[in-house]
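Students often ask why we bother encoding 3D structure as a string. The short answer is that it lets us treat folding as translation between two languages. Here is a chain of 126 residues written in the first language.
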Amino acid sequence: MKNIRVVAAVIRQKNRILLASRPADKPPFGWEFPGGKIEPGETPQKALLRELREELALDARVGDTIGFFRKPGISIEFLRTCIAPDARPVPQEKQSFRWYALDGSTPEGLLPNDEVFWRFLMQTLQ
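And here it is in the second language, the structure alphabet:
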């Protein structure tokens, strides 16, 4: 079975986390941490910088790995990511974005793989 490697940004500002919707032409539909597939020859950091520019027109600084999610067929690496305080995401693929409060609740519509990490994140931030 082929394993897809994915990278995801954990962008935190003012006790909120940035989530993006999946583009309409890329199921499954729902909310996720922004990011995407790692292309051959890319490091996770370079892949995340590319994905953030392509999807949300964001420049960022990518930091350390916060956690991993793995199951057969997919592995997701979640990386601490910083954007300028005045940066505004501009969706490039007909998706939406939202800031979600770190209040312990799980955002409605969060994709299952991302929901597992969200729960982990809530536990580590308590």
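Translate back mentally: The chain is about 20% helix and 35% strand. Keep this in mind for the problem set.
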